[in-house]
Amino acid sequence: MTLTFPPGFLWGAASAAYQVEGAAQEDGRTPSIWDTFSHTPGKVLAGDTGDVAVDHYHRFREDVRLMAELNLGAYRFSVSWSRVQPTGRGPAVQRGLDFYRSLVDELLGAGIQPVVTLYHWDLPQELENAGGWPERETAERFAEYAGIVAGALGDRVEFWTTLNEPWCSAFLGYGSGVHAPGRTERLAPLRAAHHLNLAHGLGAQALRAALPARAQIAISLNPAVVRPLSDKPEDLDAARRIDALANRVFTGPLLRGAYPSDLIKDTASITDWSFVRDGDLAVIKHPLDALGINYYTPSLVSAATDNDGSPARHDGHGASAHSPWPGSERVAFHQTPGERTEMGWTIDPTGLHDLLMRYSREAPGVPLYITENGAAFDDKPDAEGAVHDPRRIDYLQAHLAVAHQAIADGADLRGYFLWSLMDNFEWAYGYSKRFGAVYVDYPTQARVPKSSARWYARVARTGELPAA
Asked: Could you tell me which residues belong to the region Disordered (predicted)?
């Protein structure tokens, strides 16, 4: 049976600046934490960096033409903070802003809605040198940066996302160290999480002050679907702990203006949370016009036993001797059953339905968007140069079907952004994992739409999901 999405449903694809732009040292851009991290031996697979990536900085017009051919209604991209404001302070570099002005104009000329993400993990290195996200000043600097970008693009961009996946920035960047800046501490991730929340609130205020009333302001989270291994009390408590650290550390202040009491209790041996100042929570609880949800795979947890070795080894976020779960290091993660992607992530679309229904309940009246969803597979051109990826089509089919079901079940879901438009630099995995609907031959930078791109183009054009 063909499933039909509501009229006006937004069909898009997404990317991130450091993963696609390249031009790392052009037009005044200075290093971000990901430049530093990727150039540090041993941090990124094969020593790969984003110096060139897929050269979107120079090829964006070609890429927008490709988006139009794929019938995209929207393109979600992030702005490189260090391209716009190289030190994270002071006046903007107009050459950097001009790139984004040109990209937005090109998108609008092609009938594609630009969706701007202000921060997708690439903090200017100078701000990290001053302490990074564990320091309050970084949130204050973010608000200034948000105002600069809004001033440059606000007359043409109506959909804004402050942060992408702040959990990764805080807990992978400052806890397990598998993401930039690669710090491995226990207190720093919690301080970083709060200051990222504060950055969202201050940034949303700055956006609202600079943008027309019609503009939408959102945040994109990567909430975890945390399932207990059993119904034993200790396993249920393990799931509660991870839910607090993965989800409610953000949605508590964002939606309710308070950090969860159980999170504060779980982390009492690490901090008294005195870095939360009077007035912060009111700022963080700035009204949202939309909530972005990124989903890939669920988590399965239990209380750790003495035989579990490194309990976080199956949490799906990369190998490290350091846990990204401060105060809950003794929770064990288990490989969920089922078919897996090249990332080792189990394919389970039921988790997406769970999230959409959960946040329909927890954020009533706030429209939802799936701002990332996709899968990495080992895609290779055939003898004729075509790239067939039937497993990705099956993945998208299954996840869009549950998204449609969530709408039928009452979720106010307004759009879907495929991750990702093109193969690109996949963070600590370098160029070894291909998430794109468009294949990129990295030596030549040739773009080849995969079978999934053509399939998705038909769905985006018709708003109809064909039967599996």
From this structure: 306-328
